[in-house]
Design brief:
alpha+beta; Macrophage Migration Inhibitory Factor; about 45% helix; Tautomerase/MIF_sf
């Protein structure tokens, strides 16, 4: 039984998650010949204040990006 664990920053909608798990399930069915009922997918979400890249918290990077966009408008 294939099991897929996805780690992601929190904030996706339920509709986005439904689309993702449907596409992943289809890919396993097509490429691994694994019946969809046997595929387990877990989405592990982390708040943006608990995740960082390049020494910067995701929440700070988003704030900085929005601030730069509003200044250039």
């Amino acid at each position: 039984m294939p099991e897929v664990i996805i780690y992601a920053a929190a904030g996706r909608t339920v509709e986005q998650k439904r689309g993702l798990v449907k596409d992943i399930t289809t890919a396993f069915d097509v490429h691994f010949k694994s019946p969809p009922k046997n595929i387990v997918i877990q989405i592990v979400e982390c708040p943006e204040e608990n995740k960082a890249k390049g020494g910067e918290l995701f929440c700070d990077a988003e704030r900085r990006k929005h601030h730069q966009v509003s200044q250039s408008s």
